[in-house]
């Protein structure tokens, strides 16, 4: 695998990993071990390439960047300047408006699930799959059983609205919902 095009693709991916790593550098996951937050976006991209067999560059870039605007000082403008309009548009679609209440943000995700683009749906499905697996692994500090159950129910409402997007991701999510007695 040689050549200019291959080099550009690899460069684009490493640029995203580097950007996200710098942006999330002071952030940790909510688990007791305080796992570096960057494990999550990289893990979401990994689910898409390794499990869902996705090779669309913009989707993988958006997965790597998907929480930078929501959770750090990154602006949409920066994403557009560094990574272009297509990646920017996907990141916009998967970013919650933090000026809204927690309840409003959740309601909007459920409401907008079906109408989002195919590429945004892929990122969102992998995001939820990662977070649900994380909840199976360990409970975030301060989360009650109700909070965990609530996140499972909320996720199901979002991903049910995305049916027909990707068989592999949907089957894996459904297995988790069954384990959690949601179906
Ligand atoms: N399961 C799990 N989640 C953690 C952990 N640390 C951070 N998170 C993040 O917490 C978010 C889910 O928690 P909530 O209580 O529902 O949301 P909040 O962050 O808005 O308060 C997810 O955000 P998100 O990725 O933006 O997804 P979503 O809010 O769009 O579902 C997830 O990535 C952890 O250790 N385990
Ligand atoms: Mn996320």
UniProtKB/TrEMBL annotation:
InterPro entries: HD/PDEase_dom (IPR003607), HD_domain (IPR006674), MESH1 (IPR052194). Keywords: Hydrolase, Manganese, Metal-binding. Residues 37-132 form the HD domain. Pfam families: HD_4. It is an enzyme of class 3 (hydrolase). Its cofactor is Mn(2+). The keyword Calcium does not apply. It catalyses: guanosine 3',5'-bis(diphosphate) + H2O = GDP + diphosphate + H(+). It comes from the Eukaryota. Its EC number is 3.1.7.2. One of its GO terms (molecular function) is metal ion binding. ppGpp hydrolyzing enzyme involved in starvation response. Belongs to the MESH1 family. This is Guanosine-3',5'-bis(diphosphate) 3'-pyrophosphohydrolase MESH1. It comes from Oryctes borbonicus.
């Amino acid at each position: 695998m040689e050549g200019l095009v291959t080099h550009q693709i690899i460069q684009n991916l490493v640029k995203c990993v580097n950007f996200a790593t710098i942006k999330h550098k002071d952030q940790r996951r909510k688990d007791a071990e305080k796992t570096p937050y960057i494990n999550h976006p990289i893990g979401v991209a990994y689910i898409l390439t390794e499990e869902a067999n996705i090779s669309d560059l913009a989707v993988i870039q958006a997965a790597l960047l998907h929480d930078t605007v929501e959770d750090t000082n990154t602006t949409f403008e920066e994403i557009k300047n560094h990574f272009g309009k297509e990646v920017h548009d996907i990141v916009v679609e998967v970013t919650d408006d933090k000026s809204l209440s927690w309840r409003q943000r959740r309601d909007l995700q459920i409401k907008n699930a079906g109408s989002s683009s195919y590429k945004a749906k892929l990122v969102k499905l992998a995001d939820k799959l990662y977070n649900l697996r994380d909840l199976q692994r360990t409970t975030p500090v301060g989360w009650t059983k109700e909070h965990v159950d609530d996140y499972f129910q909320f996720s199901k409402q979002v991903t049910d609205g995305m049916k027909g997007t990707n068989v592999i991701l949907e089957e894996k999510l459904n297995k988790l919902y069954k384990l959690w007695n949601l179906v």
